[in-house]
Amino acid sequence: MTPAAVDRVYLDYNASTPVAPEVAAAMQPFLSNHFGNPSSGHWAGQPAREAVEVARAQTARLLGCQPDEVLLTSGGTEANNHVIKGVVSAAMASGARTPHVITTVVEHPAVLEPCRVVERLGARVTLIPVDGQGLVNPDDIRRAITPQTVLISVMHANNEVGTLQPVTEIGDIAREHAVPFHTDAAQSAGKVSTRVDDLNVDLLSLAGHKLYAPKGIGALFVRAGVALDPLLHGGGHERGRRAGTESALLATGLGAACALAESDPCADRLFALREHFWRGLQAACGERVVLNGHPERRLPNTLSVAFPGRFGDEILANLDGVAASTGSACHTGVRDISPVLAAMGVPHDLALGTIRFSVGRTTTETELDEVVRRLESYV
Which of 13, 166, 182, 361 is the most buried (most CB within 10 A)? Predict the structure, then answer.
């Protein structure tokens, strides 16, 4: 690798991934040809329809479900909104006066904000706490269930600290009480297994740009028999479940990314890179670096660390082109810490000094070693 290639290092794969070459190649024909509407019955629409269905089948194979259980969306945010609003709407239409939703304090805003919306519409929402490593206690879920509970939503992996939740165990509890169970798998898909039967889930959300597909495409697994009202109304697209003309271009990108994740799983490589980086940080910084999140039950690519007594944004500003995320935000001179870190009880000074590094398929040890070198000289 040339020195110039190390000048800028991307370690923010949890925020977004580049489009994989295999994905770009699969999409290319739809930038120049196959422009027809997938819903059209003539020769121009047929290739687009076939491409959409191939992508649906590729996504289904990654999830271990049937293609007709995969609903294409614009991304993870739409999928999460569809689940929460759609389940609550269906319950209300069936006569539920105060449908009850259970979720956690560390969910992505794409779950927490729709929950606030349905609260305003008459639903009740229970937020389950987490421990100091970001883990939910399944017994807390069990105790929160009432006869009015219509949905449990617990993320598979936390986007900030990488903690993997006991989703399978929570799924067992949900089934015992006949409550639909949803997991936001935007961060976990393509990094760890997200087969729906293994996870015991009835609904699962995906975001294409988290697994080397383009932005603007995602998917929602809906197990057969789950009552879910449409989020978008209009034409009869997606078997009447989601109005809007499907994009063969974006669907092909998602399908190709799912096929890549299935044929070339990268968890072991990501884990090796992350551990190499963590060992380097420990050797260089010693007690000046602290791990956030669960030490073992964690995404293989995610490393959330705190530098006591420092500000994460100032550290990143001095790392000369290293792209990563901080655990705090500065607004008009006041630093607010991440709600996730606050919910975990991370001390304020550690939260302010937190940086999330996330490695990906194209990360190299050379890049990680360079980041360690820069950190050692600064912190």
Answer: 182
